[in-house]
Design goal:
The protein is of the alpha+beta class. The protein is built from seven helices and 16 strands. Strands 1, 2, 3, 4, 5, 6, 14 and 16 form an eight-stranded mixed sheet that branches. Strands 13-7-15 form a three-stranded antiparallel sheet. Strands 9-8-12 form a three-stranded antiparallel sheet. The structure holds 2-oxoglutaric acid.
Length: about 280
């Protein structure tokens, strides 16, 4: 079958751009299937779509699963409550390595972000392939990690934000009271590719269950350093209207905060799995 979209890899490990997207995606299931196939293969995909409508942004989200109404970021209002806004003018930022909302029992599987206001320079987003990082571990380390689980806790970044005077004490307390934390396998299997990926981040992962604090800190420290090797990374310089879609099961991301005092505004949708899509269900 001939392809509707052209897929151009942007690095040998992860990241590809897709050319040829047409509007009215809700009626174009073949095209949505091609987007999904490219995402599963390349882990992050970039679309150059300044004319993409809000409806089409939503249609891509609905193709992958159930678009989330986000708890922490504002949205576009009653017509498009699932389209979240991250605007640096309001102090919204995501300059930390993380999987989206990994403190939930079933975090979003896919996130898609579109650049609506770009700074004149800076403001790139970076991703790490946690599948490639896992593959590059020694067999001894892979064996050691088998069956280990680690806690992912929303309180960790919010406590850090309070220390940096980025949030009020009232907001800190409101978030801490939600008590959002979850114990996840440190290595997860992607349901579509069968590849193993490390599922830890310096932002949300606080400690490994069942081992001493010293051992947990040492192991997490080693794994974070290993994953942040530049050879597992892909970096995108945004142009107005670009959309990045990433597989939250297999990559970490970080929006570089190097553009202040300029404005950077993104529209994003994150998507929860419908049913059997999430990795932990394979256990
Ligand atoms: O603004 C970006 O580039 C990414 C922000 C982010 O972390 C997210 O949308 O989950």
């Amino acid at each position: 079958m001939s392809s509707l979209l052209t897929v151009r890899p942007l690095s040998p490990i992860l990241g590809a751009e897709l050319i040829g997207l047409k509007p009215d995606l809700s009626s174009k299931s073949d095209m949505l299937a091609e987007i999904e196939a490219a995402l599963v293969k390349h882990e992050v995909i970039i679309l150059h779509v300044p004319d993409l409508s809000l409806e089409d942004h939503q249609a891509i989200g609905q193709h992958f699963g159930m678009p989330e109404i986000h708890t922490y970021f504002p949205n576009l209002g009653p017509e498009f409550p699932q389209i979240t806004i991250i605007d640096s003018k309001r102090g919204e930022r995501a300059d930390m390595w993380h999987h989206d909302e990994s403190f939930l029992s079933s975090p979003p599987i896919v996130t898609m972000t579109q650049a609506k206001i770009t700074p004149p320079c800076g403001g790139d987003t970076c991703w790490i392939s946690m599948t490639s990082a896992y593959d590059a571990l020694s067999d001894r380390m892979k064996h050691y990690l088998e069956g280990l689980q680690a806690w992912h806790d929303m309180n960790a970044p919010i406590a850090e934000a309070l220390r940096q005077n980025m949030v009020t004490y009232e907001r800190y307390v409101a978030i801490v009271q939600k008590g959002q934390r979850h114990l996840h396998d440190m290595v997860k299997i992607h349901p579509q590719t069968g590849r193993k990926a490390l599922f830890i981040s310096p932002t949300y992962t606080t400690h490994i269950e069942g081992i001493s604090t010293t051992e947990s800190n040492a192991l997490l420290g080693y794994l974070h350093t290993h994953c942040q090797n530049i050879k597992f990374m892909f970096r995108h310089r945004w142009h107005l209207g670009d959309m990045a879609i990433w597989d939250n099961r297999s990559v970490l991301h970080n929006a570089v905060l190097d553009y202040q005092p300029h404005q950077r505004r993104m529209h994003r949708i994150s998507v929860f799995a419908r049913k059997q899509q999430y990795i932990s269900l394979l256990k």
